[in-house]
Every structure is written in C-alpha cells, then in structure tokens.
C-alpha cells in the first residue's frame, strides 16, 4: 500500500491575491503592448471598428430575417398539411 505525505495547503486568501495580482499585471502588460504595436492611430482604429461592427450587425439582422422567413414557411407548410389531412 502506498502512503502519501499530505502537504499543508497554503492560505487560500494569499493564493487568490496572487492570482488577482497576476491578472492585473497581465492586463497592464497587454494594454501597453497593444498600444505600442497598434498598426494605426486611434481615430483610424475607431473608425475601422465602427465600420466592422456595423457590417456585423447587418449580417446578423439579415440572418435573423432569413431564419424568420424560413420558419414562417415551415409553419405555413405544416398548417397546409394539417388542412389537407
């Protein structure tokens, strides 16, 4: 039979604090790298993001409308089948 020595666990509060400090440091470093490596000025980037968001919104609206029309078509076909039965 194998016996294992149980290691005393560290305080969970210090572990959580360490995790939060690591997350905060990662965010700061990530933001700094993002600002330094940005391919365009801020105003150009904001315009590109706004344009991309508008295009994505239009695509989502189109797909939802297509699904609604398709669903209405299926519901209409179900009603016709029931009426013919």
Helical segment tally? Answer: 2
How many DSSP E strands? Answer: 0
Computed over alpha carbons, the radius of gyration is 28 Å
**SSE series:** HH
End-to-end Cα distance, whole Å, is 72 Å
Major beta sheet, specifics?
none
**What amount of the residues lies in strands?**
under 5%
* Count of the domains: 1
Helix content: over 70%
Q: What do the pLDDT scores average to?
A: 85
Structural class from helices and strands? mainly alpha
Can you tell me the overall shape?
flat
Structure notes:
It is a single chain. This protein has 85 residues and is mainly alpha-helical. It has one domain (12-84). 81% of the residues lie in helices and 0% in strands. It has helices at 12-37, 42-84. The protein is flat and about 75 Å long. The relative contact order is 0.04.
Task: Based on the model shown, name its key terms.
2 helices; 85 residues; mainly alpha
Topology:
Elements: H1 12-37, H2 42-84
How would you summarize what this structure contains?
The chain is built from two helices and no strands. The chain is mostly helical and 85 residues long.
């Amino acid at each position: 039979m194998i016996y294992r020595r149980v290691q005393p666990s560290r305080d969970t509060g210090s572990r959580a604090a360490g995790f939060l400090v690591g997350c905060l440091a990662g965010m700061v470093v990530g933001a700094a790298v993002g600002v330094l490596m940005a391919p365009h000025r801020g105003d150009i980037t904001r315009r590109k993001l706004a344009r991309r968001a508008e295009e994505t919104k239009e695509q989502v609206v189109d797909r939802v409308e297509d699904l609604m029309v398709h669903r209405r078509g299926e519901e209409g076909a179900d009603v016709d089948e029931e009426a013919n039965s």
